[in-house]
């Protein structure tokens, strides 16, 4: 096991953070002291849906499913820093990641966890893994996936790595969190992994091929890598999303992230990248996810709730990225307000694709085998 700080030793209960507003202007409260597993989150959401059989008539009941909760852990001061807008960013390798790590951002990540739980029908992984013994979760964020994985596979050792030690204390002894830049730092692990998981890591790396190559090298023969991420694309059945503020916002995210030196919208290139480093048996699944709870069927409505909540919470932290596309602060505010209005409008029947892609290291490739571990994407080039 590498000799690095252990999150559970550094995380203590503390400040709660304020949330945002959502459909019908209802305040989204922050998460609880012991944040529940996704099953509890979803059962609360389901209970609320039972109360509100027609969500479109009373959307605030949906939001209320997160009521009376407080996120009960705070960020260790030694690793965090506060910027001028009052948001907290990681202090380890500052500038390596553009999004905050505070309670609001942690809530957003947990919305995404709930969303992928629905997309994957309650499963944590799509790759055909059986009884994995060593699991790595890169860019683990709140650690909610790693904690659930450790409970689901009690005989596995689960490691979550991140630039921020914001994770909750694991509920089991087989889950550990480490501070690590997965792209620029060398991976030092004593055992090969059977499964490596990355979710919502679009903004994390200059060139994700470096991480794919390291993953390949550190997987056991026959081990699997899996990515779960949104494509930053917007669709509608009748083209009503064309020319919308949200469409423009997404296009500016692409330009802004390119200008920041990391195109975070490259999920469509991942299949080729995985092939390039030697992965085989690549599987893909794409799910259209409503951008708000506009859809009639319960599953789509729930997905829309969690995606919409996540996108609403993303408007503020992505200001920097939009600013890098050349917009002034006033223009960013104006655009964000228009996007918020569109996302809250249940008449907008729009959706975005959520992508899952997994791939296997060939059985004839030994642990440690593989090629170069550093790629460098040229800004502006695919
Ligand atoms: C959008 S969050 C996703 C969190 C988690 N995977 C989830 O889906 O709930 C991205 C996370 O990756 C972390 N991260 C960003 N760049 C990283 C890097 N180079 N190495 C390791 N972690 C990184 C961030 O600190 C953040 O917690």
Helix content: 25-40%
Net shape:
globular
The chain-level mean pLDDT equals: 79
Largest β-sheet summary: 8 strands, mixed
> In percent, how much strand structure appears in the residues?
15-25%
Distance between the termini: 37 Å
The radius of gyration is: 20 Å
CATH superfamily: Vaccinia Virus protein VP39
CATH class: Alpha Beta
**Poorly predicted residue ranges:** 1-75, 374-382
Q: What is the count of distinct domains?
A: 1
- Give me the number of helical elements: 11
Family: Belongs to the methyltransferase superfamily. LaeA methyltransferase family.
Region (Disordered): 1-34
Biased composition (Polar residues): 7-27
GO molecular function, one term: methyltransferase activity
Please give a structural write-up:
Helices cover 31% and strands 17% of the residues. The two termini are 37 Å apart. The protein is α/β, with parallel strands linked by helices and 382 residues long. The chain has a single domain (7-360), classed as Vaccinia Virus protein VP39 (Rossmann fold, 3-Layer(aba) Sandwich). The longest helix has 17 residues, at 103-119. It has helices spanning 7-10, 38-51, 60-63, 103-119, 144-152, 208-218, 245-259, 270-276, 298-314, 319-324, 329-344, and strands spanning 80-82, 88-90, 134-138, 157-162, 175-179, 193-199, 219-230, 235-236, 280-290, 350-360. Helix 6 links the parallel strand 6 (193-199) and strand 7. Strands 3, 4, 5, 6, 7, 8, 9 and 10 form an 8-stranded mixed β-sheet that branches. Bound molecules: S-adenosylmethionine. Residues 90, 96-97, 101, 109, 112-113, 139-142, 144-145, 161-164, 180-183, 199-201, 204-205 line the site of S-adenosylmethionine. Residues 1-34 are annotated as: Disordered. Belongs to the methyltransferase superfamily. LaeA methyltransferase family. GO terms for molecular function: methyltransferase activity.
